Structures are given as structure tokens and as C-alpha cells.
Amino acid sequence: MQHSDALLRLLREFFNLPPDVQPQEITQNAVAAWDSLAMVQLIADLQGTFLIDFDVDEIGRLRSYEEIRATLLKKGVSLVRQRAAACGPEGIQQQNSRDPDHPRGSQTVSSH
Fold first, then answer.
1. Would you state the pLDDT for residue 78?
2. What are the Cα distances from residue 61, in Å, to 20, 102, 108?
3. How far apart are CA 33 and CA 41, in angstroms?
4. 93-94 and 77-78: which strand pairing?
5. At what angle do helices 6-14 and 65-74 cross, to 10 degrees?
6. Sign of CA dihedral 70, 73, 69, 97
7. Sign of CA dihedral 50, 51, 52, 56
8. DSSP notation for 7-43
9. Per-residue pLDDT tens for 5-59?
10. Residue 103 carries which DSSP code?
């Protein structure tokens, strides 16, 4: 099974993991570098990359690839890599409605 999603690429790069590491192997308990400081940096990277915000309860659950993936999908982030010409180099698509009072305003983001 080939996993070519944006989250997997981000986690492999963030934690400097080998390219053959499988998603189910990416957990806070299994990755030595995944400490509290790395978690803060990871949350910032995830929010910046996928243009979403996590609440405190969500952050408490983000302890593995699968948990992060489920949370991103619940927020409307598509992680499937599309053809580069159609969706850009990262293959990230997202429908994101923000609160108009949020500093970034209301927006819809797509790499199409």
C-alpha cells in the first residue's frame, strides 16, 4: 500500500524519519524525537501548512499519524495527493470557513 499524503510527508520530514516508515509507526510513543517541545512545533507546522486551528481538546488527542489525520479530515482537509498540475506541488485541497473576526478572515483555500 502506498501512502503519499501531505500529512505523512510532513511528519516524515518534521521528525527526520526514513521514507519507508509506515503511518501506523508514527506515534508519540514510537518516535523518540516527539517530546513536548516538538509537539508545540508540530502543532504550529500543522496549523500553518493546512491553514487550520486546533482547540485544546484536539491538541490533547494528536498523538499519532492516525489521530492527526482523523482530526484534519474532520476539519475538511483533503490529504490525498492529486496530480501536481491540477493541485500544485503539495496536493493539498481544503475547504475552510473561518470566523470573520479571526485575523485571517473568512476564506476558502484550494490549490486547484
1. 85
2. 25, 24, 26
3. 12
4. antiparallel
5. 140
6. negative
7. positive
8. HHHHHHHHTT--TT--GGG-BTTT-TT-SHHHHHHHH
9. 899 999 999 999 999 999 999 999 999 999 999 999 999 999 999 999 999 999 9
10. T
The per-residue pLDDT for 110 is 37
Residue-level pLDDT at 81? 60
| CATH superfamily of this structure's domain 6-75 | ACP-like (1.10.1200.10)
What are the boundaries of each domain within the chain? 6-75
Helix (H, G, I), strand (E, B) or coil at 1: coil
Query: What confidence score (pLDDT) does residue 84 get?
Result: 44
How far apart are alpha carbons 64 and 100 in whole angstroms? 31
What is the DSSP track for 48-90? HHHT----HHHHHH--BHHHHHHHHHHTTEE-S---HHHH-TT
Q: How far apart are CA 101 and CA 13, in angstroms?
A: 33
Q: What is the pLDDT of residues 56-79, one digit of tens each?
A: 999 999 999 999 999 999 999 988
